[in-house]
Every structure is written in structure tokens, then in C-alpha cells.
Amino acid sequence: MQITVKLFATFRVGRFAEATRDYPPDTRVADIISDLQIPEKEIGMIMLNNRHAEPEQQLHDGDNLALFPLVGGG
Amino acid sequence: MEELNRFLQDHAEGDLLPWSAQVAAAGRFGVSLAQVEAAVLTMGLLPARYQRNRHAISVGQQRRLFRSNVAVIGCGGLGGYVIEELARLGVGTIIAIDPDVFEEHNLNRQLLSSPATLGRAKVEAAAARVAEINPAVTLVPIQVAYAPENGKELLQGSQVIVDALDSIQTRLALAATCTELGIPMVHGAIGGWYGQVATQFPGDDIVQKLYRRWVEGKGVEQRLGNPSFTPALVASIEVAEVCKILLGVGETLRFQKLSINLLEMTFASIGIES
């Protein structure tokens, strides 16, 4: 199935800003995170089709997944 | 009061009251510059310093800003610029809350810092700066750390709270305090080339959502630091949000996160549903 992944801020470094890729049918959010080698503890927010999502959630063909790192300075 | 008003009317140039006349009035009638400012604005005159605010901001709106009370939590990277801009904008009362003193590593970005202020309390430097640039507005320095235990007492008099913190944990607590008090909060955070701004109205619980995956510790700022331009930009957006909230104009970043990437020059507005 086709999943579009959007990465923000530091997550883009060494990866991409946006990519649409083919993933196996049972892929969960956590699988993509791990596939991209993004440490879970660096994630601030996960948005799946513009809604907040948990890593355990299953993905479906055509989904849009956005990953935001923690930004906390001031 | 009538005499003061007459004096002001006599010394107005058009509908502008020059600073020199404001100072003279304070001296002559034994009142504070803030009291004269209030009188000027109440009469529908404009302190001449604000003439370049018009007509983005009307005299009536300037009066409203002067009568407003905004609390800024943090006087560091974000806070320094927020305070400078709120004071120049003409917000009448600015509460500055920060327990720290300046250290050398602040100098790359913290507007209130200089070699001369190292070791000085940040809120004191804030008070001195505001007294220097706009003596008609009042900065109330509070050299304590905001915490849930003292939060309500510190913030209950303010119309808007500005997040200028450097701790995710404290931000989450602040957002909860603001919701409890029924006060809108402008959230901002920075790290390296990146920043974000969102506006939370009471009950929105947006900040919790922005940091939903957070468990502990800091964000990208730990590794990337904070160059001078990132806090300046994010702080300025926060101040624009404050202005809109106080005046009830424009579109705020309510239910939106503005995600700023200065390295790649992308600005994305992410919808955050309630």
C-alpha cells in the first residue's frame, strides 16, 4: 500500500521532507518510525491524516503520516 | 485631573501628545508617566511615540493595549524579545517571571543580556530595559520559577500568558494552569533552525497535543542550541498573537501549529483539532 510520509525539522536531515512509498499491508506507524531509524523518544507529535495517532495504529493505503520532533527551547 | 487634561489638550499637536509634554505633565502634576499615558489615551489623544503604530492600531486599540496585563514566563531567548516588543507596543503592564541570572552562554541570543549584565537577575534587567525604552509602561519583575503551586497567584491578573520557557515539562504545567485560570496562552518553542508557535484558548488543550509523545527531557535544542535569529522570529510571532488576542482582531494560531524551518525556508500550518 502507498503511504505518504512527511518529516519535519531535524527528522528531515539525512532523510527527506516528503516521500510516498510502498509498504506491506500490515504496516503500523511504529514500523515506519523504526524503518526510518527515528528514535521514538525524539518524537513530539504523530499525525495520521491530520489526526493524532499512536505508534500501534495500522496504516491504510493512501494514508498521510507526519512526524514532528520535540522542540522545547526558549 | 481636569487641570491635567487641560494641560494635555493645550500641549497636543493635532491628536498627538509629544513625549516632552508627557514628561512635563508628570512633573507638574506629581503623577507617574503611566498615569499621564492613561489620561492621554482616555482623552482620545495618542502619545506621539505610538504614531507609527497607526493605523494598524487605532487610538482606541492603543488604549486597550495600555490597559492590558500580559505575563511572560521566561526572560531568556524568547522572553527578551517578547518583553522588548510588548513594551514598545504599549502594553501597560508586563509581568516578567524568571528565577535566573545571566550567564555567558546567554549572550549569543538573549536580548536582555550583555557582558555588563552577567550575573544579574534577568527580571531586573527586563525592568531596567523597559524603564529605559518606554517608561510609561510597567514591567513587574518576579524572580521566581513558575510552578503549578504558585502559578495561579502569579498569573491570575493577566489577560494573556506568553510561553517563553525552555522546558517541555514546565510548559505542560503552564498550559494546565492557564486552562484552570481561563486565560489564553501563546505557546512558542525553538531549537536550532526550527521553531513552533500555537495559541491555546482555555479548554483547547493544544500544548498537551503538541507534546503528546513526550516522556522526559528536552527536544532538538539540546543538540542544536539556539542561534540569535530563531528566538527573535518566534518571539515576534508570539507578540503578534498577543496583540490580536488583546484586541480581538485577525486570525490567531488557535487550533494551528505554525511549524518554522529556517534552514529550508518552509513554514507549515498544521491543524490541531481540539
Quick overview:
The complex is a heterodimer of chains A (74) and B (274). Chain A has 74 residues and is mainly beta.
CATH architecture of the largest domain in chain B: 3-Layer(aba) Sandwich
Distance between the termini of chain A: 40 Å
Estimate the global geometry of chain B from the Cα principal axes.
globular
Tell the overall outline of chain A: globular
- Topology as H/E string of chain A? EEHEEE
Could you name the ranges of chain B where pLDDT drops below 50 across 5 or more consecutive residues?
none
What about the largest sheet of chain A? Answer: 5 strands, mixed
Oligomeric status: heterodimer
- Average pLDDT figure of chain B: 97
Q: SSE layout and pairings?
A:
The complex is a heterodimer of chains A (74) and B (274).
Chain A: E1 2-7, E2 18-22, H1 29-35, E3 43-48, E4 51-52, E5 64-69
Parallel strand pairs in A: 1-5
Antiparallel strand pairs in A: 1-2, 3-4, 3-5
Chain B: H1 2-11, E1 16-17, H2 19-29, H3 33-42, E2 46-47, H4 59-66, E3 69-73, H5 77-89, E4 93-97, H6 122-133, E5 138-142, H7 148-155, E6 160-163, H8 168-181, E7 185-191, E8 194-200, H9 206-210, H10 221-224, H11 229-247, E9 256-261, E10 266-271
Parallel strand pairs in B: 1-2, 3-4, 3-6, 4-5, 6-7
Antiparallel strand pairs in B: 7-8, 8-9, 9-10
